[in-house]
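Exercise 3.2. Students should predict the tertiary structure of the chain below and write it as structure tokens, then compare their answer with the key that follows.

Predict this chain's 3D structure.
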Amino acid sequence: MGIVDGIKDRVAIVVGGATSIGAEIVRAFCDCGARVAIADIEEQAGELLASQLSGKALFSRMDLRSDDDIRSCVDRAVAAFGRVDFVVNCACPYLDKGPDSTRADWLEALNVNVVGGAMVVQAARPHLRESKGAVVNVGSISAKVAQKGRWTYPVSKAAVHQLTRNQALDFAGDGIRVNTVSPGWTWSGAMEKVVGDNRAAIDQIAAKFHLIARAANRREIADAVLFLCSRHATFITGAELPVDGGYTAIGPEQKDAPVS
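Answer key:
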């Protein structure tokens, strides 16, 4: 993405930053001169990523179900880097049993996808207020459409979108902006579990659902996150930025003319 105004020398907490899209967001911040606290339950991957970033990042183990972990991560970021300017909530469980989801499945999805992220922002709020910072919650195109056999994931992501609007309203007086990025199909760890290292297979499937006929690259999602944190977006809050290649613009007729 190149130089992004307002990112250099700032500090971000990236929740879910150890792997996949989250790790790409971490790298993008560091590429633009920021320092990052990688907050994740995946210790090995998080420590490895931090070690690759030459002192620009630290890893803090964070289980989003633990308020102690959340407070510790925020405190470590401030102790190490002196401030917190941005919080990016990217962590989520993808496991979804659809109509067979148990109460425990529902509570787990909501606890991690919604409540945990809200608690991170709550813990970081005094520092975000001081820096007039920004929050980016990672939502999903899944929050807006019905998808076969998927309940807990899209419902929890829909709640994230509403949380963003409420946070933006209540934090506006603090000078804190809050927005959502909604990725379309993105080449990520979740997709690799389905098709292995076959990116072409995902692009082929995604082509008919996206005006840009492929899945997104992880850096394309990361660039959108950095934009919303930057000085280029100082009048944007309470908004959703779809980074979906036109997925939400297509109706049920998709790309084909129904009558020829």
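Discussion points: Residues 11-185+218-245 form a domain with the Rossmann fold fold (CATH 3.40.50.720). The helical segments are 20-31, 43-52, 67-81, 103-131, 152-171, 189-195, 199-206, 218-229.
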